[in-house]
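quick one
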Amino acid sequence: MLSVTEARERILSHFHPTTEETLPLIECAGRVLAVDVSAPHDLPLFDNSSMDGFAILASDSPSGTHASPVTLSVVADIPAGSAPKVTLTQGQAARIMTGAQMPAGADAVIPVEETDSNFHTAGTAAPQTVSFSKTIAPGQNVRTRGSDLSAGTVVLKKGRPLKPQDMGLLAMLGMAQVKVHKKPLVAMLSSGDELVDVDQPLTGGKIHDSNSYAIGALIQNAGADILRLGVAKDTRQSVEGLLQKAIQANVDLIITSAGVSVGAFDFVKEVIEASGKMDFWRVNMRPGKPLAFGEYSGTPFIGLPGNPVSAFVGFEVFVRSVLEKLGGRSDGSRPTVKVRCEEQIDSDGRESYLRARLREDNGVMFCRLTGHQGSGNLLSLVQADALLIIPAGVKCVPVGREVEAILL
Ligand code: AMP
Ligand code: MG
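structure w/ adenosine monophosphate:
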């Protein structure tokens, strides 16, 4: 029997990141950066005002506790988005708006609320003079060039999936085109004569195919595109016909559910072996002991178990890291945390992935199982916040012991 780690490493060693493509920024949200991005210019690019007010020389502002007000002559009006043409000298001020470039000579801004102008009225001309009695220090209310970041700084690292805030920063830096990894394309096939799609009636002995939906959503959630192959009947022809579609679409990976155990009608195994190869592994884990790995017509293939919870756990444990590697991601998308057991948990010595609900109390995370752990009981997975990882060899976790958990 293989350990989970051995099985995962064997699988991962067969995959490499997809090639890069250069896309318009607008298409890059969620995509994984293929290169480090360094800033082509400082941010802010020019000294600018952080307030609506008047640009001044700080040395003109009153000093001392009971200083009398000063009056400066207003020699320019600087709206946002224009280049100031004046150089302020002693005794002068310029009306300035938030984000507008500071005029040469000025080194501080007095907010309009602190002056005799009280507020800027839209559409009105700047006053002739401005008076105020507040002491203003050099640099006050000014965002200086490069104070956020300087040109050449690496701001986003290769391997990072682009978050909304990253999109904003890339736009600030004028990155109209970005080098990202191609999205992996994954084919998903369910198999079994008992399965019908969700819109079909459940006549004698049939059940709805849930794996296409759960695993399909996991594929997308892990940053890949999906080719939905639907349900293969338990015949050679049906399985072969659908797998051929995956080959024609040039997918990066084929995922199947069910049909790889020793059931008399399990044709997935037979079909794959006829046009490729397949290893059938018994992994020391629960749920999801049977796992198939191989290739079909040169395309890698992972066969998950049919039971819905086993298929889900199999995806989280083996397939997610494959999609992350294929997609060029450098970090994991599922963080693990330490949680404390509120009930005794019995295990059978296999590495176990158990559905649990979490509860936070005074900074400590507590966990409790979500009812019976049958591998077909999808509701207990729906109710779970996490999968507890009970290590191989452990048969009993006492109350109060900490275990690792994958957050769902
Ligand atoms: P098998 O791997 O074919 O032995 O299937 C194991 C169990 O999972 C059986 O109860 C199947 O009916 C069930 N099963 C297989 N595939 C699916 C699927 N796509 N959706 C829901 N249940 C499934
Ligand atoms: Mg079956």
